[in-house]
Amino acid sequence: MITFDTEMMNETLINARIVERFHGGFRCPFCETPLHEKHHLRFLSGGRMRCGACERFYTYRTGTPFSGSKLSSAELVLLESLLAVGVDAKPIAALLNLSADTVLDWKTKFEVLNV
User: Domain residues of the chain, as ranges?
Assistant: First the structure.
């Protein structure tokens, strides 16, 4: 059973979980150079970072299945939660202003991630 609480919708906490799961912590997703602690909050807030070692730009979503998505992190959690409890694609699409096909695409991505 899914437990839902207000912390699930906190953008900074969601982004921290994304960083930990897909980057293994605060580091460049390209060369894995650690990000200086003073930049952590900016990184979690969606700030664009430039790696001092490899000089590439990245955000907390770079290299994740969420890269390029226009949905906020809270919207992604809501989408995943609604799909997990069996809500049909059409009502979710209407709620999040997406097409039903986009919702089904996300359903497939979430299923792969949760394996």
Answer: 6-58, 73-113
